[in-house]
Structures are given as structure tokens and as C-alpha cells.
Amino acid sequence: MSKNRTTLKDIALELGTTITTVSKALKNYPDISKETKKAVIKMAKKMNYEPDMRAVALKKGKSNIIGVIIPEVVHFFFSNVLEGIIKNAEEKGYKIIITTSHNISKQEKKHVRFLFNKKVDGIIVSLANETKSVKHFDILKEYDIPIVMFDKVSDTFQCNKVNIDDKSSAYKATEHLIKKGCKKIAHIRGPKHPLNSIARFEGYRSALEDNDIALNPNMVMECKDVTLKEGYDFTLELLNSDDKPDGIFAVTDQIGVGAIQAAQSLGIKIPEELKIIGFSDSQVAQIIRPSLTTIHQPNYEIGETAIRMLIEEIELREAHGDSDIDFRQIILDTYLIEREST
Fold first, then answer.
1. Is residue 109 located within the same domain as residue 185?
2. Euclidean distance between CA atoms 289 and 270, whole angstroms
3. pLDDT tens-digit readout, 275-303
4. What is the rounded distance in angstroms from the CA atom of residue 216 to the CA atom of residue 245?
5. CB 249 within 8 A of CB 186
6. Total domains, the chain
């Protein structure tokens, strides 16, 4: 049988005082003596007292809880974003509930409803690859619950957003391969729907066009789940074709590492015969040999910026309602890191 939660009444009974006195002592009211405050705090610790956040939320109309919905946790990019969110949220007195959609739209919808029912003060979300419609976020709008989108965002949903310029970053990556002498550049891209995947393809295509290189549709491979295995399998397919690429722009570092491993399995020398560039600057890009040239993405800063934007909106709504909300999109800088693969 589970032990009941310690209440203010339990502490009051132990000390032979009133619930009001205990409550005021814990809130540091000036009309309670230092000795009483000290005794109450000591007893509260001894009895493992924790405030009932649900009761606090009902009284204040605020829970000090923020919900986060991400496609996956075991991913270098998202784990670093989470670090930025959690550290900065805790400094401001907020707790975080993390949920994962596994890139499934149905799961994302369930998590929106779950976090809404938990009475969170706001939500930070990176959309699932599957997500086309974002109507399931409308309920948050109806109840003035702030939302910040990052990385995979919607261009139709009005809210604060933080991401990078995926198109110019992809252009930079493709142009790097061209400057290194590549003429036949393949792109192992992300799924069709996420805007960042589309933007990276557009950057790749623009760089080819600006350098008078014709886009070969056979050189573009579309991932479903964006896994290392897809990078490996698609690279094998490309390198076993009659028209082999001499360069590969991978939509993520995971794909880039899979590409390196596939080339090595065929005895193809990197970077002499094939140059590969990834995207994100994850740890695996540094560990793999040859090390992977990549686009550095400011992962921690994305999380830090997202939580700052969300808390600012929460506080603004508390002070003024929703009449003065001016939604922004913050674009953070990326840069290219050249390593052994190019």
C-alpha cells in the first residue's frame, strides 16, 4: 500500500499549530516569527513535504510546468536542444514534461491533448515528419496557451519559432563540394513534408543551378526515417549505379556516417574518390574515420532561445492578455566545419 502524500495539515498536527501558520511560514510571511519558520521548514523536510502543484495551479491559474514534444530523445540534435531547454527553464522556476512523437502524427496529437490536460503553461514542439495539418494545436490557441516551434515548424501556424536558415546552410554544404571539385553530387534528403527537409533540398538544387550543374533526379534519394541504415543503403545504391556520384550531401550526420561506411565497404577512398558532407555537427561526425565534414547547427542555443521566447510570452500574457503578442521567428547562424571526408 502506497504512503499518503504529506499535507500542510500533517505538519500542523506534528507541531501543534494551525494549517494557516504552516502555510504562511513556508511562504516566508513577515508576520510569522523566525523560530516558527525554522521549525516548520525543518519538519517539512523531515516529513518529505512537497507542494501539491495541482492545487497551486488551480489557485494561481499557473502550473510552472512546460511541455515539450520532440520526434525522438536518442538523437544528438534533440538531446542538446533539451539540455538548453531544461537548464534555462529550471533557472526560471519551471519544470519540464518531455514527450516523444516518434515522428508519428497520431502520437503528436495525443501528446498535445495530454499536455493540455496537465495544464501546462506552454509547449515547445518540433513537428513529426508525418505531420501535414497542425489543427490539433488549435486547442492551445483557444485557451491562450503559448507555443514555440523549432527545427521542424509549420509555415501556416502563427506562433513564435526558432530555427536556422536550412536553405542557405544546404547551399553552403553543396557549394563546398563543388569548390572541392565535385561534378556529380548526390543528395540523400529527408522526407517530403518537413519544411527543413524541403529547404535543404532547395539549397542543394540552387547551388547546383548557380554553378551550371544539371540536377539529376537519380542522384536524389529520399529517406523515410532518416537513419544511419538508410544512409548506408542509399549510398550503396548510388555507388553501384552506372552514374556514380563523386560527392554526397547528406541531410544529417547520421546519413553521412552511413554513407562513409557504405563507401568503405566497397573499397572507395574518401575523400580521393568520394567526398561526403553531413549536417548538424554531432559527436558521431567527429568520431567516425575519416571524420565527417558538416554544417554546425547551434543545438543548445536553439533550446535556450525557444525556452526564453516561451517564458517571455507566458509572462506577457499574464500581464497583458493576448492583445500585445507579436510573434517572431528567430534564425540562428550555422557554419561549415571541414574535416577529413572532404
1. no
2. 10
3. 999 999 999 999 999 999 999 999 999 99
4. 10
5. yes
6. 3
